[in-house]
Predict the structure.
Amino acid sequence: MYKNSRKSRLESIESNKANKPENLEVSLDDNILLFKNIFKNDETLIVREFQNKHLKAAKCCIIYIDGMVNTEIVNENIIEPILHNDLSIDIESCDLLGELKKKVIVSNNVTVETEINNIASSIVSGDTLFLVEGYDKALIISSKGWQSRTISEPESAKVIRGPREGFTEAIMVNLSLVRRRIKSTDLKFKFREIGERTRTKTCICYIDGLVMDGVLDELEQRLNKIEIDAIIDSGYIQELIRDSKYSPFETVGSSERPDVVAAKLLEGRVALFVDGSPFVLTAPYIIVENFQANEDYYNNYILGSMNRLIRGLTAVTSVAIPAMYLSLVTFHQEMLPTPLLLSISASRQGVPLPTSVTLFLMLFIFDILREAGARMPASIGQAINIVGTLVLGQAVSEARLVSTPVVVITAITGMTTVINMNFLAATVIWRNLLLLGASILGIYGFLMTFIILYMYLISIRSFGVPYFMNVTRVKNHDGQDAWIRAPWWAMTTRPKIIGDKNLVRESSKKSKEK
Amino acid sequence: MKKLRLTLLILIILLNSAFATACWNYREIEKLAVVAGVAIDQGTKEQYQMTVEVIKISGGKDTKMTPEIISAEGKTIFDATRNIISLSGKKLYWSHAKIIILSKEIAENSFEKIIDWYNRDSETRPDMYLLISKEASAKEIFDAHREIESIMSLTLADIMENQISLSKAAESNLIKFDIESQLNGASQVIPTISLKQIKEEQVPQVIGAAIIKNQKLAGFLSPDETKDVIFIRNEIKGGLLTGEIQDNNTPVKFTLEIFDNKTKVKPVVNGKNIKININIETKVAIDEIEGTIKFSEDERKRIEEIAAKELKKEIENLIGKLQSEYDADIFEFGAKLREDNFKKWKTVEKNWGDVFKNTKVDVTVKVAIKNSALLSKTLKEGD
């Protein structure tokens, strides 16, 4: 049903186009009417007609959309030269349009266009249309100018050490941020528009001679397959081009930081910029990238390695701790030391619900709290905090609805979950699956589910690269940037497979000695 | 095809785990009646009387753990265990039990019959400590401490763990006893427990040992004799040696702390005769001298000699006592002979009891003083 309706909608867009004339008319009035028809009921369209007092033939008209253009450019560089100059002196040949383009209009980017569709899309993206009486051609004058956010540090990934720039919503600004970091002519940019209606500008970015074989073609192929009417954020594309569609694990990366994207490009990856989104996609994306923070590379390598180990271990604990607790307390009490058994038993006295149910409930409540914390307006934040800490932490255990160890386990799980927000979806889903396994079969169920998770992770690919690459291997240089971050003098090669095309990235004296 | 293989694989894992599981089920922790220790007495009509100490936990703001003593009789040990349900309401949970106390009567008559269930059942653990009560019954040990409201069995387990630095009670748990009873011809020692009157309370004391010969209680050893047994078995990890030294014709008592000990038992076969050489080398430190002796190299040697002589005398006496009174080989001489000279062992295996009785034992003891702790010489008052 959905597919059909979507198709018919797209077809209707097509048919609308078919009814309209494809090329410009000769008469200026006809042309103005044409565009007024196209932008019917759109009151932001500005049509300004004017004429040079010396050269009567120069009867012109500019059309643009209010708010999308820089009015100073329009006033000073288009209207003023034509109104104030004596064009009869300047214009020599009979090709008025060509002469105006060459001699009069002050703009860095002017193109001649005849097709109405192209003209219309230029107008909506902030260019100014320049029409002259008697020509079935028109000039498109670049005059884009709208308000956008300034470059600032991203809220989602603040650093103590490292550059404080973050991507903005404007694609060209974003490209410049990366270009400024990689001043090489090998850095290539390829634009394309995605989205039938939104015509969102996207840009594939890669480094020639470094980019992994096949990834570029594969990415372009997958982008070609996208048939969607709107792209609001890069998340749309991220989901449309990914491998293993139903997986909670991301196989396409996203980053808000230009230094991260530059580093990934330099490892042989491809980046995809999407206009309107400060999140730039990178591919291929493997699991260790979830644990790599840009600060690891800027700080002392021991600190970086330690932090990365913490991230890796907490990722495991955030998934496994509730299930382990459950299986120890309800199946394998003999594995607990006697004093611990007695104190857990004491805290369970008089609790009406089974341990498994309380664990599921508390974890669910934690997820609710987390979501509430992310969505709530700042003004009522305190209320949520009080409810969270007092009502859930204290009152629940004092009222003996839940035993205190369960509250502790929930707190540990919550804390470790927040460390690894990159794969929150996977954490929540697999934590509950493990808990389910443990509540049915104890440690057996827990391990069984864990093995299934492991097998599943090994089976995933991202653009042909094994998702679990480098996690289990520490041979040669494979493990240098996975569980730990090797010092820069030792990280002489790019990651395998992704950086195979040009493996050596460093040939300093020290590394040569080896 | 790929999906089919994956589903098959998952199915195999699921099925295997379902069939390969042992004893498990979902049970809430607070529903367990956690047994801390058990005492076994002779009941009426050839039945066993089993007394368990269950830890009763009451939650709330301050947790309270109180012992609950439940007794039941049964034709067998397991029968008695199940009969307890009718009194406690909960199934007993044995995995955290620490102590088995046997009465003298039970130990004299049916020792191995009792032990079997604890070895066989999957819930009971082989690290439970075995004790033999010197009192009239085993269960009165649990009753003794009632006023203090602490779990007796846990206290006893602590005593057993820490008596290493005392070395006056034999160390024994279920698995150790099992292993030792597999040695041919050997007898075992098990620590004994008795009640001591302190003011108005009766406090249990673990000290001394019982001799188990052919799975039956044969006799008791005094605390000092127990220490000598541990010495010969090369199991000593701590403890003290005391002695007296003459200083200008006044006796001065000294105490040495054992740090390290090596005992070598070597059977020497000479034709028909078997001789056992015991070579004890002990490293000690002077920990206490009750008097003012000048400390010199000579004095140190004298102390070493006196201590060695004392220990040698004690050990020889003990071996003599066991050879003549009990003829029980608690020192594992038989096992040593089997290791050392299997052929000879084969010839004497059948009547090892008699051979042991007449075996000559040669003891040499060497005590070496390592240091004198924090003081180099005794402080004199008013000096």
